[in-house]
Amino acid sequence: MSYSTDPRAARSREAMVVAARELLVAEGPGAVTHQRVAQQAGVGRATVYRHWPQPEQLLLEVMSDADLPLFKNPEAPVRRWLHRELRQMADELAVPAIAAMSLALMQSAIWDPDIAHRRDESLKTITERISVAVRSAAETGEVETDAAPADLTAMLVGPIVYRTTSQMGVVSDDLIDRLIDGVGTWHT
Amino acid sequence: MSYSTDPRAARSREAMVVAARELLVAEGPGAVTHQRVAQQAGVGRATVYRHWPQPEQLLLEVMSDADLPLFKNPEAPVRRWLHRELRQMADELAVPAIAAMSLALMQSAIWDPDIAHRRDESLKTITERISVAVRSAAETGEVETDAAPADLTAMLVGPIVYRTTSQMGVVSDDLIDRLIDGVGTWHT
């Protein structure tokens, strides 16, 4: 994969990643081909090839993208925002192809240091974002908690991953509420 | 695999499963061979072969055993018992070979109906055991909760699996306390 500092190249790169992600969610890993991604992103096939010679690399990029759209731009009240983001994560993982791909990546990380690095970066990003949001909620008095950042992620994200990849069940809004309740005392 | 109703055969079968589990935890999947299991269980090699012609079958049996030792025989106070069982689960998953094997089983379950069935049975057993324990704690007034059984499992076990297989970190006693706090209001 090539990373460019040219803003136009960065935009087209992001368009391809977004397109690949949309195809993956809508139709599964098989839909993430150079041709479909090029079409959906409005770029030439050669551009997709240049960034990711193998479709698997693009898939890996999408699934473990450190710049993933989840938990971005927290809003007050944080509780409502957190619920919405966890809901979206649960809905994405409810797509069997996404759950399967997540498990495949988790497993590949055991023997592939590159994938392990991407997993770590991705988790670091999510953990930082959730932590920043919860800290800002604590500052405005919305919540009281002394949970460490990594524990917040484990308590909020862990059960959703478990429900969708092991229990093979639906994440209800009630469960999301319970998870949010579990991280501290909310005053909203 | 053969299942016998003869009590002596059942005992030797259990001894072999226990031996395989001990070898797996202590030395990793590579140690779960017919010879080592026979030696450790004090049975003949032919007996191990008869039950599990392939070592992988024994490994699968151990990893997805519906009769797993965790969360068995709840004791009052339930909070302390729950903490101890979750601690033990976390310690087992802290062994890299066990975490790797768990991920492999979770992933294999996607395309192998037999493994999926074993995973479902195993989860059902754990969920029932946790649910019975929490319900008994509710009856004695130790805890107040209206969480559904599957949600209890997701909230208690999910973060531990996530911490050990994705975050690749240690499960602290403090995190276990937080997880237990999260399932309801405890009066102990």
UniProtKB/TrEMBL annotation, chains A, B:
<feature type="domain" description="HTH tetR-type">
    <location>
        <begin position="10"/>
        <end position="70"/>
    </location>
</feature>
<protein>
    <submittedName>
        <fullName>TetR family transcriptional regulator</fullName>
    </submittedName>
</protein>
<dbReference type="GO" id="GO:0003700">
    <property type="term" value="F:DNA-binding transcription factor activity"/>
</dbReference>
<keyword id="KW-0804">Transcription</keyword>
<keyword id="KW-0238">DNA-binding</keyword>
<feature type="DNA-binding region" description="H-T-H motif">
    <location>
        <begin position="33"/>
        <end position="52"/>
    </location>
</feature>
<dbReference type="InterPro" id="IPR009057">
    <property type="entry name" value="Homeodomain-like_sf"/>
</dbReference>
<dbReference type="Pfam" id="PF16859">
    <property type="entry name" value="TetR_C_11"/>
</dbReference>
<dbReference type="GO" id="GO:0000976">
    <property type="term" value="F:transcription cis-regulatory region binding"/>
</dbReference>
<dbReference type="InterPro" id="IPR011075">
    <property type="entry name" value="TetR_C"/>
</dbReference>
<dbReference type="InterPro" id="IPR001647">
    <property type="entry name" value="HTH_TetR"/>
</dbReference>
<dbReference type="Pfam" id="PF00440">
    <property type="entry name" value="TetR_N"/>
</dbReference>
<keyword id="KW-0805">Transcription regulation</keyword>
<dbReference type="InterPro" id="IPR036271">
    <property type="entry name" value="Tet_transcr_reg_TetR-rel_C_sf"/>
</dbReference>
<dbReference type="InterPro" id="IPR050109">
    <property type="entry name" value="HTH-type_TetR-like_transc_reg"/>
</dbReference>
